[in-house]
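Reference record:
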Amino acid sequence: MIEIKLSQGAKPGHGGVLPGEKVTKEIAEARGIPVGQRCESPPWHSAFSTPVELMEFVALLRERSGGKPVGFKLCVGKRHEVMAMMKAMIETGIRPDFVVVDGAEGGTGAAPAEFMDHVGAPLRDGLVFVRNALVGAGLKDEVRLACAGKQISAFALASSMALGADWVNTARGFMFSLGCIQSLNCHNNHCPTGIATQDAGLQRGLVVTDKAVRVANFHRNTLHSFAEIVGAAGRRHPGELSPDDLIRRIDDRHTAEGSVAFRLLERDALIRDAGSTHLAEDWRRAQASSFAPLS
């Protein structure tokens, strides 16, 4: 599987920096840089600059990898950009194998505080929007949808799948069970629990034989609780979960089933009559040839 990272929930629109002291021999070989050299990852890609070029890059990666699944990850920002990618899929006939929606809740201690707190769409909003974009454009049957971003509990997994996610990526819960205390030192080689550091002295704090058991227990118990929730909803398989298995409070006096509360589109709604949907303006402003909006 190959995932093109367009943006990351914890810091959408922001690149990354790997300090030289973390660039060990193994990392240097993978990154193609000298040991100890600072490595900067920009927040853009040089291989494409338009939605159509992105789809062509997806096809190129799939071809050169011998047919491996290829998709991309994003945190929803400007909604017309997501719609532009839908139009590019339709125009080119190229479909990514999957799209991963990363919520702004997504975590890394290497992200600036303002980005962690304020930039990007929350997972629930982003997931519903991309689900609507794929379904409304008639693409959901061909493109798998996944999500990530603070998906720790069994209910988080179930509710995301009920809203259209085919699978859920999660790391935070495993990091907690491993011993992460969220010291926000992931990027500077000073992680006090030994998890995100190449410092041999600090790494001694991570006792693998002890922590491996905790991680396994967390995983097993989470899946057990997940299965109980799926069964309690009257479903035999997580793929059977539906939006109407969720009830959402709309205001202090009213609730509604998920399909109504989240304003979910029917298949091909954007193709048949986008103007009649609440996403009409986002669809109108999108163009396959550019990430810039139409005026």
